[in-house]
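User: Okay, second chain of the day. Same drill as before: sequence in, structure tokens out.
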Amino acid sequence: MATIRRLMAALNDPWVWGQLVLLLLVAVGAPLLAALNLGPLDPLLGQMDPRWLRHLGLVVATAGLVVGIFGALALGRNLTPATKPVDDGRLIQSGIYARIRHPIYTGVILVVAGYMLWWTNWRDALLVGWLTMLYFGAKSGAEERKLLAKFPDYENYRRRVPRFFPF
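Assistant: Same drill. Structure tokens below.
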């Protein structure tokens, strides 16, 4: 029942809807981008990389999937797609959260970039990965304001642990 309540609450969060739209655009857009002629932009954004380089996209996407799964497992019952922390939640600072504040977002960024690389080229992957990171940077900012209000120790945690990547 608590899981259903969390999902219903998440549907009221515009960041969740934005995330869904972003992922849908990438899922549909990457294969289309590979098939379209982009006119003067085609040599830059429309060309496909060699197969060996595109296979690197699978490695990047798989790494992202692993990071995201570790993040979700570490959160346990604190997991919610919304930016508002669960009411009875606690601040997780161990496991992967000792190295990255938002490993699930990191995972999504890597999956999206890897997926783009698999379908198109490194330039598209870099561009879409960067745009995805900007989106999740804004979403995590909104989330962190709520975490700061709920958990007094979050400020120290935020100073100590990087947002998306452990370097």
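The chain has a mean pLDDT of 88.

User: Thanks, on to the next one.
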